[in-house]
Design goal:
Elements lengths: L3 E7 L2 H15 L3 E7 L4 E3 L4 E3 L2 H8 L4 E2 L8 H8 L5 E5 L7 H4 L6 E5 L11 H7 L4 E8 L9 E8 L6 H26 L41 H10 L7 E4 L2 E12 L6 H4 L11 E2 L13 H6 L6 E5 L2 E5 L5 E10 L5 E2 H8 L9
Parallel strand pairs: 1-2, 1-6, 2-5, 6-7, 11-12
Antiparallel strand pairs: 3-4, 7-8, 8-9, 10-11, 11-15, 13-14, 14-15, 15-16
């Protein structure tokens, strides 16, 4: 059976994972990779050099031809090149460059695309961030036939995965990268056997019901101002979600002493005896968030007598503990606190909370903004 003539288009780590699986299919004569497309190298100001994308590096290691156009719209050179390859399939994973209709129509069987969400939920550029930000109970990956819309093409295959309530972006990203690469490889093998246009075997997205009632249908790029944690306004669950979601997008941060302090690792801590916690802290799946529980004897703020009442009377954003027992900040929900484990002060390296307390001489009662 002749292999599929194909081109792969992708840029970041999730795409390189898929490329690695596809390269293995070439050994099985399922596919013949004619070229790899990726975004051009970007300038790394720290290293003072241009850095190639993960896909670029892997393609070079595998001896695959690499092309790095800045765009493809009205790019006659690249369009003519793609037409010359007699392509059966184009495979796209987080490429970052829009494919014009003229390119979408080139391959005989269509353009396959991997998207890290269960479409139609979380279309757009930031599905993994949003899955954590919205405290979704599960997400997954979708393989679809790419069309001219924003992640609107027919769905060919999907795989669901649960999201742990304490999961950080890198862990979920890695899991979705692996499951997406495996599912994509299986779809490619099926296309190779059936030799069918993928648009004819996909399920239209408007026929798929949303697991979240359509409320999380479209994501957008994460803007710098969204990284700010506001202890005076944000729900503690939202602060914790921002911490976990933004580790690869610059890092959630607060301001202390006119310095930006990035939160690298944090947790929730609550009064174990506070019955209201069970009513106040539900996630979107209707289940309780996971808390550690505090022993108030570990967090002396003023006096041990009526300590709980004194702590609960504090406004949000106040450091209620700054010692070996922990670094705790009050929130808008009484009896619920953010516990800071690892931080990155502006202009400094990542440090644990004890080094942060000592280095910045943190005291109880000080304010985080």
């Amino acid at each position: 059976m002749p292999s599929l003539n194909a081109v792969f288009m992708g840029t970041p780590e999730i795409a390189s994972e898929s490329l690695s699986h596809i390269a293995e299919l070439e050994k099985l004569n399922v596919i013949s990779l004619k070229s790899v497309y990726t975004k051009p190298p970007v300038w790394n100001n720290k290293k003072k050099e241009f850095a190639a994308s993960p896909v670029n590096k892997l393609a070079i290691e595998r001896g695959i031809n690499v092309r790095t156009p800045k765009n493809l719209k009205n790019n006659t050179e690249e369009i003519d090149f793609l037409k010359s390859l007699d392509l059966d399939l184009i495979i796209v994973v987080a490429f970052g460059i829009i494919l014009p209709a003229e390119i979408l129509n080139i391959p005989k069987y269509g353009v396959l695309n991997l998207h890290p969400s269960l479409l139609p939920d979380l279309r757009g550029p930031s599905p993994i961030h949003y899955a954590i930000l919205k405290r979704m109970k599960f997400s997954g990956v979708s393989i679809m036939a790419l069309d001219s819309g924003v992640d609107t093409g027919p769905i060919i295959a999907q795989q669901r995965t649960d999201i742990d309530k304490n999961e950080y972006f890198p862990d979920l990203y890695k899991r979705l990268s692996l499951s997406g690469a495996f599912l994509l490889a299986e779809v490619i093998k099926t296309v190779s056997k059936l030799k069918i246009n993928i648009h004819k075997c996909g399920l239209p997205q408007d026929s798929i019901s949303s697991d979240y009632s359509g409320s999380f249908s479209l994501t957008k790029l994460i803007e710098p101002d969204e990284l700010k944690v506001d202890f005076f306004f944000d729900d503690p669950l939202e602060i914790y979600a921002k911490t976990r979601a933004f580790t690869e997008a610059g890092g959630a941060f607060f301001v202390f002493g006119n310095k930006k302090i990035k939160i690298i690792e944090a947790g929730l801590i609550a009064d174990e005896k506070d019955k209201e916690i069970k009513e106040k802290c539900f996630d979107n799946a209707g289940e309780h968030a996971i808390f550690d529980y505090c022993d108030y004897a570990d967090y002396p703020l003023y006096s041990q007598e009526n300590l709980k009442n004194e702590m609960n009377a504090l406004p949000p954003g106040i450091i209620i503990s700054a010692n070996k027992s922990g670094l705790l900040v009050s929130t808008v929900k009484k009896g619920v606190y953010i516990r800071l484990f690892k931080l990155k002060p502006e202009g400094k390296n990542v440090m644990n909370y004890i080094d942060f307390i000592n280095g910045f001489r943190i005291k109880q009662g000080e304010e985080c903004r």
